[in-house]
Amino acid sequence: MKQWNRRKATVLILVISILFLVTVAAAGSQCSDAARATDFSRKNLLPCLEYPFGTDWMGRDMFARTLKGLSLSILIGVLAAAISAVIALVLGICAATLGRRADGVITWVIDLIMGIPHMLLLILISVAAGRGLKGVIIGVAFTHWTSLARLIRAEVMQLKESPYVKIAGKLGKGKWYVAYRHILPHLLPQFAVGLVLMFPHAILHEASITFLGFGLTSEQPAIGIILSESMKYLVLGKWWLALFPGLALVVTVIMFYLLGENLRRLIDPNSAHE
Amino acid sequence: MKRKFAAIVCAAAVLCGSISGVSAKASEQDAAQKSEVVVTMTAASEPASGFDPAYGWGAGEHVHEPLIQSTLLVTNPDLTIGMDLATEYSVSEDGLTWTVKIRDDVKFTDGEPLTASDVAFTYNNCKENSSVNDFTMLESAEAVDDTTVVFHMTRPFSPWPYTMAITGIVPEHAYDENYGMNPIGSGRYMLAQWDQGQQIILEANPDYYGEEVKMKKVTVLFMDEEASLAAAMSGDADVSYTASTFADMTLEGYSLLVAESVDNRGINLPTIPEEERDGLVIGNDVLSDIAVRRAINIGIDREKMIENVLGGYGTPAYSVCDQMPWYNEASEVSYDPEAAKALLDEAGWKTGDDGIREKDGVRAAFTILYHPSDSVRQALAEDMANQLGQLGIEVTTEAAGWDVAYDKAQSQPLMWGWGAHSPMELYNIYHTAPESDLAEYSPYANETVDQYMDEALSTSDLEQSYELWQKAQFDGETGVTQDGDCSWIWLCNVSHLYFVKDGLQVAEQKIHPHGHGWSIVNNVDQWEWTE
After folding, report:
1. The Cα angle at residue B445 between residues B441 and B450, in degrees rounded to 5
2. A4, A184, A249, B57: which sits with the fewest CB atoms below 10 Å from its CB?
3. Which ipTM value was assigned to this complex?
4. Options 3.50.50.60, 3.90.180.10, 1.10.3720.10, 2.60.40.10; which CATH number does A2-32+59-271 get?
5. What predicted TM-score, i.e. pTM, was given to this entire model?
6. How far is the C-alpha of B430 from the C-alpha of B433, rounded, in Å?
7. What is the tens place of the pLDDT at every residue in A96-135?
8. pLDDT 10s digits, B172-212
9. Which residues in chain B are contacts of A232 at CB distance < 8 A?
10. In chain A, which residues touch B (CB < 8 A)?
11. Could B226 and A57 be called an inter-chain contact, meaning their C-beta atoms sit closer than 8 Å?
């Protein structure tokens, strides 16, 4: 009875987090204009019914800006994490299957990238790729694949030694065939969870690089932009400019984390039958 | 973190002040403090290359009096020319030779007399090395005797006195590559201490030849806006610069000083249709229509914009040089949205279904660029977009760093900031650039305007040159104003704001130029504490 409840709760949380994220993404994409509209007759308003998150020094609706910013973040996070996960998958499998030398090179690259401070590398790549949306996506995509790649490599190495893969090899199946038909399906759960758990990282990094001024440009209502703009007004006691967008970012990140964790619980063989 | 850092700096400054007065009695200490002042400035105001006029001290992008050095001439509060080292000056008929007589009683702070050869050395050195200011019109400077210096020019240049008013004279005998760090001059102050990235302490020159320096010690702290505000809140700064965002705060023991400025903001309007030159897009199909440019100029409510964006701390701008002696009052326009709409209608810009005007399939739409870290410029651009929307012109805003802004401004308006104590600014903005048929910062050309400015440069009489500069703006038929080509639109002059401690009398300010920095202390020697 208890176990059934737990599974149900897991599914419920999963559905709630997916609903939340989809709603935010959809709502955000609907209020692009509202997020940018300025109206100096309503500047610096405290949160009220009409403007639940208040307005800023140019009379922009912070609620619309926050929604739009979150949906931008989610878009960037999903795109960058997806690219990143694909890189991780390909390199992880290559490392495990293409022999010692390939493994050496790929492991070395992973160690190298993990050795450089994350933020620094992210800024470098993003600036080199021309800043803006493109720069951030490329920057995040090329810095976040390492730990997942390592995970996949280890998993594949383990799978390679497993009896059914060995048998398939002995039966004369080619390397690619084995990788595609036998190893890849087994990897998918880890891969899916790794992908989802990469979202919150990607979103936080997008926000921080933009906050530092190396990401999106200031006419775009990204969360990083909103937070860095609000810094100046905190001195003046305009707390709502930073508080609500910051909280919203945290909630979004937590939702992604819950999504990933619960997804793992459902499809990880170790916990799927709890 | 920054505030913490600033607090430490302030604390250190106060500590230094108190240590120096430890042995003195309390009353003496009070008296000493009454001739000391602590001023905050933006971090960018710290002279990166030191106090060397050849590398931009005083004579740089943002002009101000060099304090440590003397200048030949000075600008008066009304921005006409007065004397400092010079006793008289004249220019030859052809404008190619300037002769300046200087006083013979001036000594550098190391005791050596200041002679005409130091003056000649300074200018020749600036010509060779200055990368910041324009000295290309100078052929060479020559000391004829101890008190006479002659400038040979490559071309006539009537605003030369304005250059002479900002170029500090350095001692030939004590000048080397490290001069900027250990400046010796003959001005009102000596550099006592410089902690890079933090503060500069100036002490009065006891042998100063001019009026007695009343403020004996000036400490300049470099910090950002928030830290400057904190310094005023804690009482550590006597004069603390601030921005309109903070101006409505009431700080006990401080009052707000509003210094009028010619620190203007405006946008360039490309006057030619879009085309591609050397891979660069120049011109704009909407703004090349003069009716659109004129409609924008009168369709903008500048007062409202100043109220919205600057909290009222600004004055409407109608030219790059409002209130300067060379300003032409014909630049002024009054806000008239109906007339603006009529202008657009007349020119064939018909309102479409979505409320945006169109003409021959071209939408009345353009982008205004602004610098990403400048919230005032961003807000001005946004307010302008709102106001122009009412006229049926669609404006979007876009951030552009200086690395790309100059190129982009060739085809799209950019929110600029200008305003200097020299008519050369008119030349830089409106005159066609060398080896080009268009002006440098925005595609524009008008032969008549060019001609007036060339004449203004070559005239030998400064008064007469003012008149020609005015004619370049508008001569009754053509020019750069509303009734002329209207190739730039000026929005507002941003007042420079300071929190000033009660009891401190800040002497009358000249109209501040662009750059919220050293201008405030131009006359710090005449500031006074009163009870």
Report:
1. 100
2. A4
3. 0.76
4. 1.10.3720.10
5. 0.83
6. 9
7. 778 889 899 999 999 999 999 888 999 999 989 888 888 9
8. 999 998 999 999 999 999 999 999 999 999 999 999 998 89
9. 225-226, 245, 375
10. 38-40, 43, 57-58, 213, 217-219, 229, 232-233, 235-236
11. no
